[in-house]
Amino acid sequence: MTTPSLIWANSGDSHVLEPQDLFFERMPRALAERMPRSVKDPDGRWETLHIDGNSWRRRLPTRPLTDETGLSQQDKAPGAWDPELRLKDLDGEGIWAELIFPSISMWTSSLTDPELLRTGVSVINDWALEFQQRSPRFVCTAHLPLLSVEDTVAEIRRTHEMGFRAAFFPVEPPPSLPKFNHDVWEPVWDVLEETGMVMAVHIGTEAHDAGVINGQYHRGPGGAVLNYFETSFGGQRITAQMITSGALERHPGLRVMVSEGGATWGPFLADRMDEGYRQHWSAVRPKLAKLPSEYLFTQVYASFQHDGSAVAAMSAMGWRNVCWGSDYPHIEGTFGHTQSTLRGLFANADPAVRERITVGAFAELFPHVPPVPVA
User: Are residues 362 and 10 in contact, defined by beta-carbon separation less than 8 angstroms?
Assistant: First the structure.
């Protein structure tokens, strides 16, 4: 029997697990103890999150009942934190390059001390650069100290000079600052466009408190599924804010990637914004040179994992900026069955659509990455 050739794909959504002792090795202990950290129960099913003096308990997800990887419920992908093992995993899966988000460091959006955040972000980025330098296939996202616009601008400049090409944004700014549609953020949009850094947004990254941990807004019947789908709304809100405020019009060179929130929402959001813009014209501020949909279709990208409808977002709905993502090494991702997932998604797709979603959209955002191997 002939073994099918690999469908090579870039990933617009992957993660790296930071070393557990990262902050304790590189920060004064008094500050390190306030940075986000996870302490797992011996059975691996629950964890306690510690963030700047606050602690929360949460149940850890387990692999789906239909999982095809052969891994146990608690196993992690071998290359979750090791760059050399990671490359072996990627080669086996047919994944070429990756846009890589952090893991525990995402919880820095819940920090409220500007000095602590500024120091911690610098540590995270210095370590992430070391990881990125292990392979040109790794595109790590730079963390930003969003409690201060001035600190944010400075860190974007610093990390761009270091070699970062994407900056990680949560779906909402810190609660102490205005939403992203306000002019206070204009210096940030200026420097992103100036440097060419991609604004890389990951869903489920709102600041959390004891009432809302990791997007757990719902409890009771259906809660798990309700929480999972509701996390996608944050990516849609920040996209609408960037468009309707005129930020993308003022910065035509700025590109936004919304990761892990699916992609079929793009055409729907485009229609909804256009309708609101037309039907409520007298109340619309600011007036835009083009319809909102035109900014979305040209400057906004989105990654998805398993969604069959996402292929139709490009092939039938006209949104070319659809990018596949593996969510490696998370258990809801495709590790262990990437090839079967890709074959199922693109079984009936035009080759040009497959190429654009698996390779082209990512390469457009990150042209410095070496090209995918020729099959």
Answer: yes
Lowest mean pLDDT among 12-21, 44-53, 54-63, 337-346: 54-63
Question: Among 369, 371, 294, 292, which Cα is nearest to 136's?
Answer: 369
DSSP letter string, 171-204: SS--TTS--TTSGGGHHHHHHHHHHT-EEEEESS
Instruction: Report the alpha-carbon distance of residue 283 to residue 332 in Å, rounded.
Output: 42
Total domains, the chain: 1
Residue range 284-300, pLDDT digits in tens: 999 999 999 999 999 99
**DSSP 8-state code for residue 209:** B
In a domain, 183, yes or no: yes
Mapped onto helix, strand or coil, the DSSP state of residue 149 is helix
Lowest average pLDDT, out of 3-17, 53-67, 210-224, 255-269, goes to: 210-224
Domain of 237 in residue numbering reads as: 9-365
